[in-house]
Amino acid sequence: MNLLKQTSLVFWKDLLLELRRRDSLLTMFFFGTLLLFVFHFSFDLPPDKVAEMAPALLWLAFLFTGTLGLTQLFQVERENHCLEALLLSPLDRGALFLAKSCFNLFLMLLVELVVMPLFWILFNLHGWNLLPQLFLVTLLGTVGFCVLGTIMSAVTLRARARELLLPLVLFPLMIPVILATIRCMENIMSAGDLGAAASWLRLLLGFDVIFVTVGILIFDRVIEG
Amino acid sequence: MRLCVDRLSKAYNFLWALRDFSVELESGDLVALLGPNGAGKTTLLKLLVGLIAPTSGSIRFDGTSRLASLSRPRTGLLMPADHLYDNLTVRENLSFFLSLYGDRCDLQMIDSALQEVGLLERGAEFVGNLSSGMRCRASLAKWQLLQPDLLLLDEPYGVLDGSGIDLLEKFLRHQIENSGIVVMASHHVSRALRLCSRALILKQGRLTFNEVKRQPWPSFDRAFGEFLPQGER
Q1: SS (H, E, C) A63-81
Q2: Do the chains contact at B86 and A1, CB–CB below 8 Å?
Q3: What is the rounded CA–CA span in Å between residue B57 and residue B55?
Q4: A157 within 8 A of A149, measured Cβ to Cβ
Q5: Which residues of A touch B97 (CB under 8 A)?
Q6: Where along chain A do its domains lie?
Q7: Helices A162-191 and A47-72 sit at what angle, rounded to 10 degrees?
Q8: What are phi and psi of B52, to 5 degrees?
Q9: pTM confidence score
Q10: A11-24 confidence digits (pLDDT tens)
Protein backbone atom coordinates (compact mmCIF):
# COMPACT_ATOMS: atom_id res chain seq x y z
CA MET A 1 0.00 0.00 0.00
CA ASN A 2 1.45 3.37 -0.94
CA LEU A 3 2.27 6.28 1.33
CA LEU A 4 -0.70 8.44 0.35
CA LYS A 5 -3.22 5.63 0.77
CA GLN A 6 -1.88 4.82 4.24
CA THR A 7 -1.82 8.53 5.12
CA SER A 8 -5.45 8.99 4.11
CA LEU A 9 -6.47 5.84 6.01
CA VAL A 10 -5.00 7.09 9.30
CA PHE A 11 -6.21 10.66 8.65
CA TRP A 12 -9.84 9.55 8.12
CA LYS A 13 -9.65 7.34 11.20
CA ASP A 14 -8.47 10.34 13.26
CA LEU A 15 -11.14 12.56 11.75
CA LEU A 16 -13.87 10.03 12.54
CA LEU A 17 -12.61 9.73 16.12
CA GLU A 18 -12.51 13.53 16.47
CA LEU A 19 -16.04 13.88 15.11
CA ARG A 20 -17.19 11.43 17.76
CA ARG A 21 -15.13 12.78 20.64
CA ARG A 22 -14.96 16.47 19.66
CA ASP A 23 -12.30 17.04 22.35
CA SER A 24 -9.56 18.76 20.41
CA LEU A 25 -11.54 20.95 18.02
CA LEU A 26 -13.93 22.35 20.61
CA THR A 27 -11.14 23.00 23.13
CA MET A 28 -8.98 24.68 20.50
CA PHE A 29 -11.84 26.75 19.17
CA PHE A 30 -12.96 28.02 22.57
CA PHE A 31 -9.41 28.64 23.75
CA GLY A 32 -8.54 30.59 20.58
CA THR A 33 -11.68 32.72 20.89
CA LEU A 34 -11.08 33.25 24.59
CA LEU A 35 -7.55 34.49 23.93
CA LEU A 36 -8.88 37.06 21.45
CA PHE A 37 -11.27 38.41 24.07
CA VAL A 38 -8.43 38.54 26.62
CA PHE A 39 -6.31 40.50 24.14
CA HIS A 40 -9.26 42.75 23.34
CA PHE A 41 -9.87 43.65 26.97
CA SER A 42 -6.17 43.89 27.88
CA PHE A 43 -4.95 46.21 25.12
CA ASP A 44 -6.49 49.61 24.82
CA LEU A 45 -4.67 50.66 21.66
CA PRO A 46 -5.44 53.09 18.85
CA PRO A 47 -6.39 51.38 15.53
CA ASP A 48 -3.00 52.09 13.86
CA LYS A 49 -1.13 50.48 16.76
CA VAL A 50 -3.47 47.49 16.69
CA ALA A 51 -2.69 46.98 13.01
CA GLU A 52 1.01 46.93 13.90
CA MET A 53 0.50 44.41 16.66
CA ALA A 54 -2.14 42.28 14.94
CA PRO A 55 0.22 39.69 13.38
CA ALA A 56 2.05 39.08 16.66
CA LEU A 57 -1.19 38.85 18.67
CA LEU A 58 -2.78 36.55 16.12
CA TRP A 59 0.24 34.27 16.12
CA LEU A 60 0.34 34.18 19.88
CA ALA A 61 -3.24 32.94 19.78
CA PHE A 62 -2.43 30.38 17.07
CA LEU A 63 0.65 29.12 18.90
CA PHE A 64 -1.15 28.54 22.19
CA THR A 65 -4.20 27.05 20.47
CA GLY A 66 -2.06 24.85 18.25
CA THR A 67 -0.01 23.61 21.19
CA LEU A 68 -3.24 22.59 22.88
CA GLY A 69 -4.10 20.53 19.80
CA LEU A 70 -0.63 19.02 19.64
CA THR A 71 -0.79 17.76 23.22
CA GLN A 72 -3.91 15.79 22.21
CA LEU A 73 -2.49 14.59 18.89
CA PHE A 74 -1.38 11.15 20.06
CA GLN A 75 -3.95 10.84 22.86
CA VAL A 76 -6.18 8.47 20.85
CA GLU A 77 -3.17 6.26 20.17
CA ARG A 78 -2.19 6.20 23.84
CA GLU A 79 -5.59 4.88 24.92
CA ASN A 80 -5.64 1.07 24.85
CA HIS A 81 -2.03 1.18 23.59
CA CYS A 82 -3.28 1.66 20.04
CA LEU A 83 0.06 3.16 19.04
CA GLU A 84 1.55 -0.31 19.59
CA ALA A 85 -1.05 -1.74 17.22
CA LEU A 86 -0.09 0.83 14.60
CA LEU A 87 3.64 0.21 15.03
CA LEU A 88 3.05 -3.53 14.82
CA SER A 89 1.37 -3.11 11.45
CA PRO A 90 3.19 -2.55 8.14
CA LEU A 91 2.12 1.12 8.29
CA ASP A 92 4.85 3.35 6.89
CA ARG A 93 6.01 5.63 9.73
CA GLY A 94 6.21 8.47 7.21
CA ALA A 95 2.51 7.96 6.48
CA LEU A 96 1.76 8.14 10.20
CA PHE A 97 3.71 11.42 10.39
CA LEU A 98 1.89 12.87 7.38
CA ALA A 99 -1.52 11.76 8.65
CA LYS A 100 -0.97 13.27 12.11
CA SER A 101 0.46 16.50 10.62
CA CYS A 102 -2.45 16.83 8.17
CA PHE A 103 -4.96 16.14 10.91
CA ASN A 104 -3.50 18.82 13.18
CA LEU A 105 -3.27 21.20 10.21
CA PHE A 106 -6.93 20.58 9.44
CA LEU A 107 -7.99 21.38 13.01
CA MET A 108 -5.82 24.49 13.17
CA LEU A 109 -7.09 25.80 9.83
CA LEU A 110 -10.68 25.40 11.00
CA VAL A 111 -9.87 27.40 14.14
CA GLU A 112 -7.95 30.03 12.18
CA LEU A 113 -10.83 30.47 9.74
CA VAL A 114 -12.96 31.59 12.67
CA VAL A 115 -10.34 33.39 14.77
CA MET A 116 -8.92 35.66 12.04
CA PRO A 117 -12.19 37.34 11.00
CA LEU A 118 -13.20 37.55 14.67
CA PHE A 119 -9.94 39.38 15.42
CA TRP A 120 -10.75 41.89 12.67
CA ILE A 121 -14.20 42.49 14.13
CA LEU A 122 -13.07 42.76 17.76
CA PHE A 123 -10.25 45.20 17.01
CA ASN A 124 -12.26 47.08 14.40
CA LEU A 125 -9.52 46.65 11.79
CA HIS A 126 -9.83 47.78 8.19
CA GLY A 127 -8.52 46.01 5.11
CA TRP A 128 -10.83 42.99 4.94
CA ASN A 129 -9.58 42.56 1.36
CA LEU A 130 -6.16 41.64 2.79
CA LEU A 131 -7.52 38.64 4.65
CA PRO A 132 -7.04 36.11 1.78
CA GLN A 133 -3.34 37.07 1.46
CA LEU A 134 -2.90 37.00 5.22
CA PHE A 135 -4.60 33.64 5.37
CA LEU A 136 -2.25 32.26 2.72
CA VAL A 137 0.80 33.31 4.74
CA THR A 138 -0.83 31.93 7.89
CA LEU A 139 -1.38 28.65 6.06
CA LEU A 140 2.34 28.36 5.30
CA GLY A 141 3.21 29.22 8.90
CA THR A 142 0.67 26.71 10.18
CA VAL A 143 2.12 23.96 7.97
CA GLY A 144 5.54 24.63 9.52
CA PHE A 145 4.04 24.63 13.01
CA CYS A 146 2.15 21.37 12.42
CA VAL A 147 5.00 19.36 10.89
CA LEU A 148 7.53 20.43 13.51
CA GLY A 149 4.87 20.09 16.21
CA THR A 150 4.07 16.53 15.13
CA ILE A 151 7.74 15.57 15.29
CA MET A 152 8.11 17.15 18.73
CA SER A 153 4.89 15.56 20.06
CA ALA A 154 6.28 12.20 19.03
CA VAL A 155 9.63 13.04 20.69
CA THR A 156 7.89 13.92 23.97
CA LEU A 157 5.31 11.13 23.68
CA ARG A 158 6.89 8.92 26.31
CA ALA A 159 7.98 11.74 28.62
CA ARG A 160 6.28 12.03 31.99
CA ALA A 161 5.37 15.73 31.82
CA ARG A 162 4.89 15.79 28.06
CA GLU A 163 2.23 18.56 28.11
CA LEU A 164 4.73 20.84 29.87
CA LEU A 165 7.72 19.67 27.89
CA LEU A 166 6.22 20.06 24.42
CA PRO A 167 6.07 23.90 24.34
CA LEU A 168 9.52 24.10 25.89
CA VAL A 169 11.12 22.12 23.08
CA LEU A 170 8.82 23.33 20.30
CA PHE A 171 8.74 27.11 20.74
CA PRO A 172 12.51 27.76 20.37
CA LEU A 173 12.54 25.70 17.16
CA MET A 174 9.50 27.60 15.90
CA ILE A 175 11.24 30.99 16.02
CA PRO A 176 12.09 31.08 12.26
CA VAL A 177 8.47 30.26 11.35
CA ILE A 178 7.00 32.79 13.77
CA LEU A 179 9.42 35.50 12.69
CA ALA A 180 8.90 34.85 8.96
CA THR A 181 5.10 34.70 9.25
CA ILE A 182 4.85 37.85 11.33
CA ARG A 183 7.17 39.80 9.01
CA CYS A 184 5.15 38.70 5.97
CA MET A 185 1.87 39.62 7.65
CA GLU A 186 3.21 43.00 8.79
CA ASN A 187 4.23 43.82 5.24
CA ILE A 188 0.88 42.78 3.82
CA MET A 189 -0.99 44.85 6.41
CA SER A 190 1.16 47.98 5.97
CA ALA A 191 1.91 47.93 2.24
CA GLY A 192 -0.92 45.79 0.92
CA ASP A 193 1.45 43.18 -0.52
CA LEU A 194 4.47 41.13 0.44
CA GLY A 195 7.00 43.61 -0.97
CA ALA A 196 10.26 43.44 0.95
CA ALA A 197 9.06 40.42 2.92
CA ALA A 198 9.32 38.06 -0.06
CA SER A 199 12.57 36.64 1.32
CA TRP A 200 10.74 35.79 4.57
CA LEU A 201 8.13 33.95 2.51
CA ARG A 202 10.89 31.96 0.83
CA LEU A 203 12.28 31.11 4.27
CA LEU A 204 8.82 29.93 5.32
CA LEU A 205 8.45 27.77 2.22
CA GLY A 206 11.94 26.35 2.72
CA PHE A 207 11.21 25.55 6.35
CA ASP A 208 8.00 23.72 5.39
CA VAL A 209 9.66 21.67 2.64
CA ILE A 210 12.65 20.77 4.83
CA PHE A 211 10.61 19.68 7.84
CA VAL A 212 8.05 17.71 5.83
CA THR A 213 10.96 15.81 4.26
CA VAL A 214 12.84 15.42 7.55
CA GLY A 215 9.63 14.24 9.26
CA ILE A 216 8.98 11.53 6.64
CA LEU A 217 12.59 10.36 6.83
CA ILE A 218 13.13 10.29 10.59
CA PHE A 219 9.68 9.60 12.01
CA ASP A 220 10.32 5.85 12.34
CA ARG A 221 13.22 6.52 14.72
CA VAL A 222 11.28 9.20 16.59
CA ILE A 223 8.06 7.24 17.12
CA GLU A 224 9.67 3.89 17.85
CA GLY A 225 11.76 5.54 20.59
CA MET B 1 9.47 -20.45 9.13
CA ARG B 2 12.28 -20.49 11.63
CA LEU B 3 12.71 -17.97 14.43
CA CYS B 4 16.19 -17.69 15.95
CA VAL B 5 16.73 -15.54 18.99
CA ASP B 6 20.37 -15.17 19.94
CA ARG B 7 21.61 -13.76 23.28
CA LEU B 8 18.80 -11.22 23.41
CA SER B 9 19.08 -8.72 26.26
CA LYS B 10 17.11 -5.69 27.28
CA ALA B 11 18.00 -3.23 30.01
CA TYR B 12 15.83 -0.40 31.29
CA ASN B 13 18.35 2.11 32.64
CA PHE B 14 20.44 -0.08 34.95
CA LEU B 15 17.89 -2.87 35.36
CA TRP B 16 18.14 -5.95 33.15
CA ALA B 17 14.63 -7.02 32.19
CA LEU B 18 15.96 -9.81 29.96
CA ARG B 19 19.44 -11.27 29.80
CA ASP B 20 21.12 -13.50 27.19
CA PHE B 21 17.87 -15.08 26.03
CA SER B 22 18.39 -17.58 23.20
CA VAL B 23 15.87 -19.90 21.60
CA GLU B 24 15.09 -21.48 18.25
CA LEU B 25 11.48 -22.00 17.19
CA GLU B 26 9.98 -23.51 14.06
CA SER B 27 6.65 -23.48 12.24
CA GLY B 28 4.06 -25.37 14.25
CA ASP B 29 5.63 -24.57 17.63
CA LEU B 30 3.29 -23.41 20.36
CA VAL B 31 5.37 -22.16 23.23
CA ALA B 32 4.18 -21.61 26.78
CA LEU B 33 6.16 -18.73 28.26
CA LEU B 34 6.01 -19.02 32.02
CA GLY B 35 7.53 -17.33 35.01
CA PRO B 36 6.70 -15.15 38.01
CA ASN B 37 5.70 -11.48 37.82
CA GLY B 38 8.58 -9.33 36.61
CA ALA B 39 10.42 -12.26 35.02
CA GLY B 40 10.62 -10.46 31.64
CA LYS B 41 7.79 -12.21 29.76
CA THR B 42 6.11 -9.08 28.39
CA THR B 43 9.49 -7.53 27.60
CA LEU B 44 10.38 -10.62 25.57
CA LEU B 45 7.07 -10.50 23.67
CA LYS B 46 7.55 -6.82 22.85
CA LEU B 47 11.11 -7.49 21.69
CA LEU B 48 9.96 -10.33 19.46
CA VAL B 49 7.37 -8.17 17.69
CA GLY B 50 9.77 -5.24 17.46
CA LEU B 51 7.87 -2.81 19.68
CA ILE B 52 11.03 -2.21 21.67
CA ALA B 53 14.65 -2.45 20.58
CA PRO B 54 16.99 -4.89 22.28
CA THR B 55 20.04 -3.66 24.19
CA SER B 56 22.01 -6.48 22.58
CA GLY B 57 21.43 -9.73 20.73
CA SER B 58 19.52 -10.54 17.56
CA ILE B 59 16.20 -11.89 16.30
CA ARG B 60 16.22 -13.60 12.93
CA PHE B 61 13.41 -15.03 10.83
CA ASP B 62 14.62 -17.66 8.36
CA GLY B 63 18.16 -16.32 8.77
CA THR B 64 17.22 -12.71 8.06
CA SER B 65 17.20 -9.96 10.66
CA ARG B 66 13.74 -9.00 11.89
CA LEU B 67 14.49 -5.42 10.92
CA ALA B 68 14.81 -6.25 7.22
CA SER B 69 11.30 -5.16 6.34
CA LEU B 70 11.03 -7.07 3.06
CA SER B 71 11.42 -10.42 4.76
CA ARG B 72 9.52 -9.37 7.87
CA PRO B 73 6.78 -11.90 8.56
CA ARG B 74 3.38 -10.80 9.75
CA THR B 75 3.53 -10.64 13.51
CA GLY B 76 0.58 -10.36 15.85
CA LEU B 77 0.42 -9.41 19.50
CA LEU B 78 -2.81 -10.26 21.27
CA MET B 79 -3.13 -8.25 24.45
CA PRO B 80 -6.60 -8.74 25.93
CA ALA B 81 -8.63 -5.52 25.91
CA ASP B 82 -5.88 -3.58 24.14
CA HIS B 83 -5.03 -2.39 20.65
CA LEU B 84 -8.55 -1.40 19.59
CA TYR B 85 -10.02 2.11 19.40
CA ASP B 86 -12.76 2.76 21.97
CA ASN B 87 -14.62 5.25 19.79
CA LEU B 88 -14.75 3.07 16.70
CA THR B 89 -17.27 0.28 16.37
CA VAL B 90 -16.04 -3.33 16.34
CA ARG B 91 -16.59 -3.50 12.56
CA GLU B 92 -14.82 -0.16 11.98
CA ASN B 93 -11.84 -1.33 14.04
CA LEU B 94 -11.53 -4.57 12.09
CA SER B 95 -12.01 -2.80 8.79
CA PHE B 96 -9.35 -0.20 9.69
CA PHE B 97 -6.75 -2.80 10.64
CA LEU B 98 -7.50 -4.97 7.60
CA SER B 99 -6.94 -1.95 5.35
CA LEU B 100 -3.80 -1.00 7.27
CA TYR B 101 -2.32 -4.45 6.60
CA GLY B 102 -3.22 -4.04 2.93
CA ASP B 103 -5.73 -6.90 3.04
CA ARG B 104 -8.98 -6.92 1.12
CA CYS B 105 -11.52 -5.28 3.39
CA ASP B 106 -14.55 -7.48 2.84
CA LEU B 107 -17.53 -6.86 5.13
CA GLN B 108 -18.71 -10.44 4.72
CA MET B 109 -15.33 -11.69 5.93
CA ILE B 110 -15.51 -9.34 8.91
CA ASP B 111 -19.01 -10.50 9.76
CA SER B 112 -18.05 -14.14 9.48
CA ALA B 113 -15.07 -13.56 11.84
CA LEU B 114 -17.40 -11.74 14.24
CA GLN B 115 -19.86 -14.62 14.09
CA GLU B 116 -17.03 -17.02 14.87
CA VAL B 117 -16.17 -15.15 18.05
CA GLY B 118 -19.83 -14.54 19.00
CA LEU B 119 -19.82 -10.80 18.37
CA LEU B 120 -21.93 -10.53 15.22
CA GLU B 121 -24.82 -8.88 17.07
CA ARG B 122 -22.46 -6.36 18.64
CA GLY B 123 -20.49 -5.43 15.53
CA ALA B 124 -22.04 -1.96 15.40
CA GLU B 125 -21.22 -1.17 19.03
CA PHE B 126 -18.34 1.01 20.11
CA VAL B 127 -15.46 -1.02 21.49
CA GLY B 128 -15.43 1.27 24.53
CA ASN B 129 -18.87 -0.09 25.50
CA LEU B 130 -17.74 -3.72 25.48
CA SER B 131 -16.59 -5.71 28.49
CA SER B 132 -12.93 -6.82 28.61
CA GLY B 133 -13.92 -10.36 27.61
CA MET B 134 -15.80 -9.04 24.58
CA ARG B 135 -12.85 -6.82 23.65
CA CYS B 136 -10.59 -9.85 23.83
CA ARG B 137 -12.98 -11.66 21.47
CA ALA B 138 -12.83 -8.66 19.12
CA SER B 139 -9.01 -8.83 19.20
CA LEU B 140 -9.28 -12.53 18.46
CA ALA B 141 -11.47 -11.75 15.43
CA LYS B 142 -8.87 -9.19 14.32
CA TRP B 143 -6.03 -11.71 14.35
CA GLN B 144 -8.22 -14.41 12.78
CA LEU B 145 -8.69 -12.06 9.86
CA LEU B 146 -5.05 -10.94 9.70
CA GLN B 147 -3.58 -14.48 9.99
CA PRO B 148 -0.13 -13.64 11.44
CA ASP B 149 2.87 -15.94 10.87
CA LEU B 150 4.08 -15.28 14.40
CA LEU B 151 1.42 -14.73 17.06
CA LEU B 152 2.31 -13.66 20.57
CA LEU B 153 -0.22 -13.60 23.39
CA ASP B 154 0.08 -11.89 26.76
CA GLU B 155 -2.16 -13.40 29.44
CA PRO B 156 -5.02 -14.25 27.09
CA TYR B 157 -6.96 -16.39 29.58
CA GLY B 158 -7.47 -13.73 32.24
CA VAL B 159 -10.60 -12.09 30.80
CA LEU B 160 -12.20 -14.88 28.75
CA ASP B 161 -15.13 -17.02 29.84
CA GLY B 162 -15.41 -20.76 29.10
CA SER B 163 -16.62 -20.44 25.53
CA GLY B 164 -14.11 -17.65 24.93
CA ILE B 165 -11.30 -19.97 26.03
CA ASP B 166 -12.59 -22.64 23.66
CA LEU B 167 -12.55 -20.11 20.82
CA LEU B 168 -9.04 -19.00 21.69
CA GLU B 169 -7.69 -22.53 21.86
CA LYS B 170 -9.38 -23.45 18.58
CA PHE B 171 -7.77 -20.43 16.96
CA LEU B 172 -4.32 -21.28 18.37
CA ARG B 173 -4.57 -24.87 17.10
CA HIS B 174 -5.56 -23.52 13.69
CA GLN B 175 -2.53 -21.23 13.74
CA ILE B 176 -0.03 -24.00 14.37
CA GLU B 177 -1.74 -26.34 11.88
CA ASN B 178 -1.17 -23.56 9.34
CA SER B 179 2.58 -23.44 10.06
CA GLY B 180 2.46 -20.44 12.34
CA ILE B 181 4.50 -19.96 15.50
CA VAL B 182 2.64 -19.10 18.71
CA VAL B 183 4.25 -17.84 21.91
CA MET B 184 1.88 -17.46 24.85
CA ALA B 185 2.82 -15.82 28.15
CA SER B 186 0.45 -16.98 30.84
CA HIS B 187 0.01 -17.68 34.53
CA HIS B 188 -2.69 -20.28 33.74
CA VAL B 189 -0.08 -23.03 33.68
CA SER B 190 -2.33 -26.06 33.28
CA ARG B 191 -4.16 -24.56 30.29
CA ALA B 192 -0.95 -23.36 28.67
CA LEU B 193 0.72 -26.76 29.19
CA ARG B 194 -2.22 -28.62 27.67
CA LEU B 195 -1.81 -26.72 24.40
CA CYS B 196 1.92 -26.14 24.15
CA SER B 197 4.62 -28.14 22.36
CA ARG B 198 7.41 -26.50 24.38
CA ALA B 199 7.73 -24.61 27.64
CA LEU B 200 10.07 -21.78 28.52
CA ILE B 201 10.51 -20.52 32.06
CA LEU B 202 11.95 -17.10 32.76
CA LYS B 203 13.24 -16.04 36.13
CA GLN B 204 14.61 -12.56 36.77
CA GLY B 205 15.14 -12.03 33.06
CA ARG B 206 17.04 -15.27 32.48
CA LEU B 207 15.84 -18.38 30.69
CA THR B 208 15.99 -21.14 33.28
CA PHE B 209 14.05 -23.86 31.45
CA ASN B 210 13.58 -24.71 27.77
CA GLU B 211 12.25 -28.15 26.89
CA VAL B 212 9.95 -29.85 24.40
CA LYS B 213 6.82 -31.17 26.11
CA ARG B 214 6.68 -34.79 27.19
CA GLN B 215 4.51 -36.83 29.51
CA PRO B 216 5.28 -37.22 32.34
CA TRP B 217 7.44 -34.15 32.72
CA PRO B 218 9.29 -34.29 36.06
CA SER B 219 11.95 -31.75 35.03
CA PHE B 220 9.22 -29.18 34.41
CA ASP B 221 7.54 -29.97 37.71
CA ARG B 222 10.85 -29.40 39.49
CA ALA B 223 11.64 -26.20 37.58
CA PHE B 224 8.19 -24.68 37.97
CA GLY B 225 7.44 -25.89 41.46
CA GLU B 226 9.04 -22.92 43.19
CA PHE B 227 6.67 -20.46 41.45
CA LEU B 228 3.49 -22.19 42.63
CA PRO B 229 1.52 -20.98 45.66
CA GLN B 230 2.75 -22.65 48.88
CA GLY B 231 -0.12 -25.12 49.20
CA GLU B 232 0.26 -26.38 45.61
CA ARG B 233 4.01 -27.11 45.54
Answers
A1: HHHHHHHHHHCCHHHHHHH
A2: no
A3: 7
A4: no
A5: 85, 89
A6: 22-35+43-223
A7: 150
A8: -130, 155
A9: 0.90
A10: 999 999 999 988 88
